[in-house]
Amino acid sequence: MERHTLNAGFAQANGTSASRKSGNIAQRGIERVLLAVLLSAVVMAAGGCSGDSGTNPVPGGSQSTTLQQFTVDQTGGTVAYRSPIQDVTVTLTIPPGALNGSTVITVDHAQNFPAASGLVTGAVFDFGPDGLIFNIPVELSFAYGASIIGGLTETDLRIHQANATSWTPLLGSPDTANNIVSTTINGFSIFGLKTIPATGGTPPPSGGVGTDTWATIQADILQVRCVLCHNNTPSAPLGLSWEADQFDTVVTNGRISSEIPSLKIIELGNSAASYMVWKINGQGPAGQAIVGLRMPASGPPFLAQADIDRITAWIDAGAPGTGGGTPDGGGDPGGGGTPGDGGTTDPTSIIPTWFGVQANILQPFCTGCHGGPSPLAGLSWEVDQYNTIVTNGRLSTEITSLREVQPSNPDASYMMWKLRGQGPAGQAIVGVRMPATGIPLDPALINVIEQWISNGAPLGDPADADSGGSSTPTFPVGSWMYVWTESLQVCTLCHSRTPSSPRCGTDFECPPKDVVLTADNYNGVVDDKEVRPFRLDNSKLWERVTDDDPDKRMPFGLPPLSQRQLDIIRDWINNGAPFCPAGEVCP
């Protein structure tokens, strides 16, 4: 039987032979008591379930004495697994229609998972079949005995999902009166009971509120409450990272909010105009609505007011990096990249000529749409377009008073406006920031382009193309980001939260059918509708990219995907559509 395996930073679980703790599960209401007492390791049928508490084989020929099986069909049911080694019962409430047919569900104590403080001993479980995606959300609850949480703070308990090296808290607060924590899940993984970080706020530096720097704000607050999701990985929501190396991206270069583009995430000296402050408060200073959830998404509880006050005072003081300036290193943009760019090149090695910029930046990040025989909006950034763009001064099609590249004047070059999301004095652009994938270029790469234009936008030598090695994103073959980069990136012209196709709003509404195919939306794509793992024939994405009718085939209005691109998608779905293939390490 295939089991979940996480490949890096794991601690071996200990306790499969531990004695079961004494004592009944504390007060949780008549229904939960009956569930625990009468249905230990069996199924409560809501219409079409059965249970098998026998011993089942696990990899390597060994036998798991804690694994149990339950059969649930499309009519739904309630699966209850009472641990034989710990005072905890996990319950899956599966509504009708969540499954397509009879399915054998397995539950067992997880054997391999990331080490972390705050995990409740013996309360980490592995659910199967591996990779199962439900048609509609399913409720998962942990009913626990008060004795098992030890010295942990009960109000901080949350159900968490295991990632490669960390844990992500899921929405839902504990019912401390009945000792139950619940959440909803879209599919199976390893889930555990764990506390979120303490929310009482961390003390400011010795100088008091208003003396914080990026270093203290990031370490004390962002690292603890935000980086679980917003980290340097392609799956970071909206491509936004709060890792320690992102000061230049977010602060120095004034990253624009993806949700309200008229606001910067951090407006230096003005917390009231900083969307970060809106999100952690759940509203703007005058009650203006935010887009999406209040942050952190694991709340409530949200940030303590003391922490909000520290962030607000830090921004109002100019959001200093280290010691009132920029982070160590003087604030010069580094080569770490922004989440999702996947680049492996040191931008400082790129020779700032047309050949150097085109090969190392424009080719991997722009020509997927602005290239080939039918480039988007008729604008090509292929290597043979230098005379058209620079020598002959190609005008912007959006702001026709500006050239795309004005040699020696990056502030008057619309190319720079589009890459930064605004003009040098905050002037609005037309349409969306480029690239249209929703993941901005690494600021260090933007700086290379700016240097090239400042130097007069020289053509250079063809050998300059090799100066940076390659900035092309590199991901393990068969991973989500490999598939997205090689085959699906062009689809985000329409299937994006910020679509840029001229057909949007004219020929159809975007994103079509509310399908978002951006790099940060893996879970939204692999939803058992657009992509059904192992089921190429029932995956709508595959139907759309292979449709014989050119008026229906995706990408709309562009050449069909190449056979190589189709092969990449086909092999990925047939192999289970993994975010990261087994045995690989995905950034």
**Global outline:** globular
Largest sheet: 7 strands, antiparallel
SS field, number of helical segments: 13
Oligomer: single chain
Number of domains: 4
Looking at the overall shape, the CATH architecture of the largest domain is Sandwich
The counted number of beta strands is: 17
Beta-strand fraction estimate:
5-15%
CATH uppermost class of the largest domain:
Mainly Beta
Order of helices and strands: EHEEEEEEEEEEEEEEEEHHHHHHHHHHHH
Strand arrangement across the biggest beta sheet = 3-6-9-11-17-13-14
Helix content: 10-25%
CATH-derived topology of the largest domain: Chondroitinase Ac, Chain A, domain 3
List segments where confidence is low: pLDDT < 50 over at least 5 consecutive residues.
1-48, 52-63, 323-344
Radius of gyration: 26 Å
Task: Look at the helices and sheets and give the structural class.
Answer: alpha+beta
Distance between the termini: 28 Å
Mean pLDDT, to the nearest integer, reads 76
State the main characteristics.
single chain, 587 residues, alpha+beta, Chondroitinase Ac, Chain A, domain 3, 4 domains, 7-stranded antiparallel beta sheet, 6-stranded antiparallel beta sheet, 17 strands, 15% strand, globular
